[in-house]
Amino acid sequence: MANVRVLIAKPGLDGHDRGALVISQALRDRGMEVIYTGLRQSPVQIALAAIQEDVDVVGLSSLSGAHNTLFPKIIDELEKRGAKDIPVIGGGVIPAEDIPYLLESGIKKVFTSGASTDALANYIEELVGEKPAHTPPKKIAHIGIAVENIDTALPFYTDTLGLELERIESVQSEQVKVAFINIGESRLELLEPLDQSSPIQTFLDKKGEGIHHIALEVDDIEGRLSQLKDRGIPLINETAKAGAHNSQIAFIHPKASGRVLFELCEPSEEEES
To answer: What is the 3-state secondary structure (H, E, C) of 214-250?
Structure first.
């Protein structure tokens, strides 16, 4: 397969290109062919260069604050020339509140200043089919809440909130007893330690009762874990293990997510049906 060809461009009057040069070199180190168009390029110039160079992806870098104006114009210029199939991604100093507008305008993805070059390269490889892409998590599968005693905690959820208790189950792999409480398409899970060696007991000793983790429902958990490892995301579990309802679960290290503990959960076929 031919090398992925990427056009890196600096639209508008932005006079700094150190970041664009770093990105260009990082992509070359990943085996991609990179065409850098230089500073102060107009949307027309960038669109023409992308077509003439027959690139697979256009990457735009902006530090000047003009991204909301310039990025959509480049999408328009590509479309005028019958090249709307060339995906465009953006990055630079872009406030989070501007990202939804850019995505609605046709930008495939926006990488903010804290993103790594590895994350960018991996995304490009997925975008052009060099790597299998994984869809976002389907939904919040459940929220895990650590409690000292399920019998004591349960009445608030069932009597005060009026939620339905589905069942109570012991999960030996985590040394925990779990009360499953239905809420819409998701669940709350009350987590009571079975013994002193339980991770939930450790959590209770350090922090007391409260939210322990957020579980996200995913497909192909092993493939997703491999993808996260490739991206340098720290994991508590590098392979999936057995969870409740015969599901497969794995935890992402909280230092990757602002100290929030996330669980990936692939439900069993019986649970999905």
So the answer is: EEEECCCHHHHHHHHHHCCCCECCCCCEECHHHCEEE
Interval 5-49: pLDDT, tens: 999 999 988 888 888 999 999 999 999 999 999 999 999 999 999
Residue given tokens 């390269």 in the structure block: 121
Per-residue confidence band for 174, with pLDDT thresholds at 50, 70 and 90: confident
Burial of 214 (0-12, 13-18, 19+ CB in 10 A): middle
Read off the pTM: 0.74
Q: Which amino acid is at 260?
A: V
List the single range of 26-40, 104-118, 120-134 with lowest mean pLDDT: 120-134
Exposed, middle or buried, 239 (CB in 10 Å: 0-12/13-18/19+)? exposed
3-state secondary structure at position 175: coil
* Amino acid symbol at 156: F
> How many Cβ atoms sit within 10 Å of the Cβ of residue 73?
18
The domains of the chain, with CATH numbers, are: 5-127 (3.40.50.280), 139-272 (3.10.180.10)
